[in-house]
Amino acid sequence: MAAVGKASGRRAASCFFEVRKREIGSSSSRASSSQISGSEGLILRMSQYGKLRGHSGCVNTVSFNPAGDLLVSGSDDTDIILWDWLAKTKKLTYPSGHQQNVFHARVMPFTDDSTIVTVAADGQVRVGQMKQGGEFTTKQIGEHHDRAHKMALEPGSPHILYSCGEDGLVQHFDLRSDSPIKLLTCYSFSNRRRRVRLNTIAIDPQNPNYFSIGGSDEYVRLYDFRKINLDSSSNMDLPVDTFCPKHLLMGGKVHVTSIAYSYSSEILVSYNDELIYLFQNYMGLGPNPESTQPEHLDKLEQLQSYSGHRNFRTVKGVSFFGPNNEYVLSGSDCGHVFIWRKKGGKLMRMMRGDKYVVNCIEPHPHFPFLATSGIDKSIKTWTPSSSKVMPLPQYANQIIASNEREREAHASQGEVTLSSDVMMRVLRLQSRRSELYANHEPSAADFATGGDETFFIGLGDGDRNQRSNSDPRECIVT
Q1: Of 195 and 425, which is predicted with more confidence?
Q2: HSE on the CB side for 152, CA within 13 Å?
Q3: Which end of the chain has fewer CB within 10 Å, C or N?
């Protein structure tokens, strides 16, 4: 056992050594990534490395800078915080300038971490610029007429980004220009008067001219920037392709919360109160899926899906993980982080990440590290630092079964609107149930709310006694 612990320690130290080499420029990202691969052994040793406290509200966004040594977060408190996550310390905090909850914050590449873009519930798109002395100033560069959830940065560009919002609008920004370009407004295929409320946008890393959007219906729409007619008022917003699982076509009961691209242009899609699905780029339904011929649908391959979690109460993200996208990541209403093997969909890990709901799960750009956040006011960071292999917790089957029962019950009842009071009661009941399962899991003794062993740090009584009083409506609850 001691030998295992020493080996784990050396592995973790090697990870951090490679990060430090990367910071001073003595190792390329490609070389580092090949040395620290997404091997299954690392996944099975993933445990909580740190807990970052500084926000006074739900943390709705976490993302690493391009080098991976800094973490940027945004919250209901409208502040932006930059963290030295390895040292578990705050570097600086600045007011975003938003009037409502910050939903997404990203560091622009090739700007020496001096430019941060944000979107929020107030619909504004803002840019923060670091001045001499480390002070940030912010300005509004665009606006949506409803909540704006997500941005997409053009790979390798310090200037270009896209935003989408619940007004159905997709905008293109060049930070060298004074005003954005309104690319398109997304409408329902069945009712051209009904706008699709957009939750997510993602750019294909293999071809940045392609981007996909998803929102309040079941379809992922793929666009080619070069084919959008910006000068025509009659632009009918027809994508070049669409994607949807066959059993969800024209069902009208689900919507898309998140989209992610793999390095090989696969599209990963998370559905509200449904599963996560993986689409190959040849699995499209054409520009208008509602006119797709039945014989074409019959030829479509069975989709790879990922299940066990629940994505109902909030707008949850989804991500690939590993240098070759070997794994799939998602948060869950049950407060856990789920890690599946991409090929075959086997659930590999289930880690307790939040007292209530895990919304955001962000992989490190180069190494097998993660950052997660949710309704808690803290951010958790994760590394392959456990002294032992961590299997699925003993209570995993109960949590998975409970998630499935709740999904089926909701599907049979239809839409129900809950007050914030009732919502918090449900979340607290769910949290106590999860903690009860965790208390019967021997390996959970050192973890504050029943998840994994913490190898580098211990969690104190203050962590155990902290209670959240956040209103989940302010945490992107749908």
Answers
A1: 195
A2: 27
A3: N
Identify any residues that bridge with 329 across adjacent strands, giving them in sequence order: 319, 339
Tokens linked to 252: 């009208």
Of 179, 297, 188, whose CA–CA distance to 244 is shortest?
297
The answer to whether the beta carbons of residues 210 and 204 sit under 8 Å apart is yes
2-9: average pLDDT = 45
Q: Which residue has the tokens 């665009």?
A: 142
- Are the C-beta atoms of 257 and 273 separated by less than 8 Å? no
pLDDT grade for 219, boundaries at 50, 70 and 90: very high
C-alpha distance from residue 86 to each of 139, 279, 314 (Å): 30, 35, 29
**Distance (Å, rounded) from C-alpha 178 to C-alpha 142?**
10
Which residues are within 8 A (CB) of 295 and not within 5 positions of it... i.e. 6 or more apart?
none
**Residue 367: closest CA among 21, 27, 29:** 29
How far is it, in rounded angstroms, from Cα 171 to Cα 161? 8
Residue where the block lists tokens 């609008």: 169
In sequence order, the 6+-apart residues with CB closer than 8 A to the CB of 429 are: none
Task: Measure the CA–CA gap between 281 and 271, rounded to whole angstroms.
Answer: 18
Element (H, E) at 426: helix 420-439
Structure tokens at 385: 């630092």
Which residues, in sequence order, are bridge partners of residue 53?
378
Residue type, 223: Y
Distance CA(55)–CA(469), nearest Å, equals 13
Radius of gyration of the chain (CA): 21
Q: How many residues does the structure list for the chain?
A: 478
3 state DSSP class of 64: strand
